[in-house]
Write a structure and sequence with these properties.
The chain is mainly α. The chain is built from 9 helices and no strands. It has helices at 2-24, 29-83, 125-137, 141-154, 161-174, 178-191, 197-211, 215-228, 233-242. The radius of gyration is 39 Å and the shape is elongated.
Length: 247
């Protein structure tokens, strides 16, 4: 009876042994290491792709900001070109008549004249200007800009006012804030067109536009420099740049 079922029992034991070996055979260590290495390589590739995307986004932001500045400046320059023939510059501060002051009644004399201390010395406008200029030459753009701003506000009748506006614009140019420097240089042109600093301001406006890769506006201002101030030293310098500009 036992011999009758013996073949079936042997087949059953052989099948169970094969199944156990199939399901329990562990994965080889070198296969696991290869899979981990492959996974790490993919992660590194994805990180590199992310860095490239971040760099591209930053470049896009910079290009957008640059285009926005150039568009704003082009609009202002278009207005200037349209109004140039009809433009009447304002008078320099030294030619403006002061407003009449209201006369007040004189106070009654003191019964006893008291000895008073002499008034403090007035801060000379040239000293204030030289201090601001010294800050510029020391490379302290922000401090120099504030000093020139104070000079403009505190000494509106100084003959050095055009120079102060010019060097205030130079503080922006020093820090590569070219749109702001252009706007400030134009203050010299609009308010002091006959001052020796006017051709210098035109030259630096041309330089600033060149820095912004705007050759069209750079050429325009340098040509105005040649037409309006042909005998100036700045006109000679501007002529050297005109030939290198694209049409």
């Amino acid at each position: 009876m036992v011999l009758r079922f013996l073949p079936a029992l042997l087949i059953l034991l052989f099948t169970a042994g094969c199944s156990t070996k199939f399901f329990s055979d562990p994965e080889k260590p070198h296969d696991i290491h290869a899979r981990l290495q492959s996974l790490e390589d993919r992660i590194q590739e994805q990180q590199i792709d992310i860095k490239h995307l971040q760099t591209g986004f930053q470049n896009l932001q910079q290009d957008t900001e640059k285009l926005r500045n150039q568009t704003a400046l082009r609009l202002m320059d278009l207005e200037m070109q349209l109004e140039r023939e009809d433009f009447i510059p304002g008078l320099p501060p030294e030619d403006l008549e002061p407003e009449p002051e209201e006369e007040l009644p004189a106070p009654p004399p003191d019964p006893v004249e008291e000895k008073k201390d002499p008034p403090p010395p007035v801060h000379d406008h040239r000293q204030a200007y030289n201090e601001a200029l010294q800050l510029y030459y020391q490379g302290k753009a922000r401090e120099a800009r504030e000093a020139f701003r104070n000079f403009i506000n505190n000494h509106p009748d100084s003959p050095l006012l055009p120079n102060a506006w010019y060097w205030k614009a130079e503080t922006f140019y020093m820090k590569e804030e070219y749109p702001r420097s252009i706007l400030t240089f134009r203050q010299v042109l609009e308010n002091f067109p006959d001052d020796p600093k006017a051709p210098d301001a035109l030259l630096k406006i041309g330089y600033a536009y060149k820095r912004l890769d705007d050759d069209t506006n750079a050429r325009f201002y340098l040509q105005v420099l040649q037409e309006d101030y042909p005998e100036s030293n700045s006109a000679a310098k501007g002529m050297e740049m005109i030939d290198s500009l694209r049409d």
